[in-house]
From TrEMBL:
Belongs to the iron-sulfur cluster assembly SufBD family. One of its GO terms (biological process) is iron-sulfur cluster assembly. This is Fe-S cluster assembly protein SufD. Residues 123-347 form the SUF system FeS cluster assembly SufBD core domain. InterPro entries: Fe-S_cluster_assembly_SufBD, SUF_FeS_clus_asmbl_SufBD_core, SUF_FeS_clus_asmbl_SufBD_sf, SUF_FeS_clus_asmbl_SufD. Pfam families: SUFBD_core (PF01458).
Amino acid sequence: MTETYTIEGGPVELHRSSFDVADFPLPTGREEDWRFTPLDRLRGLLEDQPSGAELSWTTDLPEGVTLTSVGAEDALLRTVPKVFDRVGALALQNSTGAVVVKVAANAELDRPVVLKLHGSGADVVWGHIVLDVGANSRAQIVIEHSGTTRYAGVLSVLVADGAKLTLVGVQGWDRDAVHAQHVNVRLGKDATIASTQVTLGGDLVRFVENVEYTGTGGDAEMAGLYIADAGQHQEHRLFVDHSAPKCRSNVVYKGALQGEGAHTVWVGDVMIRATAEGTDTYEMNRNLVLTDGTRADSVPNLEIETGEILGAGHASTTGRFDDEQLFYLQARGIPEEEARRLVVRGFFAELIHRIGIPDLQERLLTAIEAELGGEPEAAIGAVNQ
């Protein structure tokens, strides 16, 4: 499948999905989906280099959840969503199977599922995780990344009819790690996902997130929080594919940048197909520039093939502190540096509190305080407690 849109000069390829590495030539950096990415920093993740390196795992699985490893020929792996770039296709090919986390149908978990993945070397690691959330179940799943590695992964998220999933991903890597990830979500009839991706660490982090609907009533809340320090590249790309009627999506991503060479990229694509009458969708990206020498690229795209929708829109802003907010706080005796921290904390508060997992929320707030205080190592330590 290939999606295109038209700009001055002719059509531009937007999305190609496949399992076959051959469908994704080695990028040059001129392609629309690679033009912001520093390809030289993805060393090893664009080449077909099988690797025996692995991440170490720590898990907490409540009753009603199982974790198994399956081989590449397992029938479930033939039903997961296709990927959208070369890194994803290589990860599926070279991981030679997947780790499957299964939430039983009708289960209501008494605590979050927690998967902690830790890297301890510079070797390339390929990985595929499948979250298989059974019909009418209720689950919270947290996936945390730490340590250092060069990790290319695919996370296939299957949310069956009537199920409700809260998904949180935390990228708390050491400063030299590289992480390229696909998160591919498939929602069944009346299924709901609330996904939040938090990116703090790493040298380069590139996330491609996709949502597809297989029945009416699907609801996707996609959120992200990122803070880029000097020299870091953090990139988040989303494609929400509305092909079923009467479904909803809401995308909110917020980022802050500080330090020379900090670079963030957000690309939000929403497709409303002719068959998706009754769609309600909105996407927003906001970036807060804290110092000079940073760069934030923000590109929202919306393509609509039917006029029979409830609503569709997008917004993107990049700017410095709100002077009125700072003046208000300083006028009440709060020093300027502390006032700035309070403004940034408030900027992210909505996204953190929507997670609904108190311990994780507190760790993230502590990490943000450390980041704003110029202590990135302390921030990573706080988030990985």
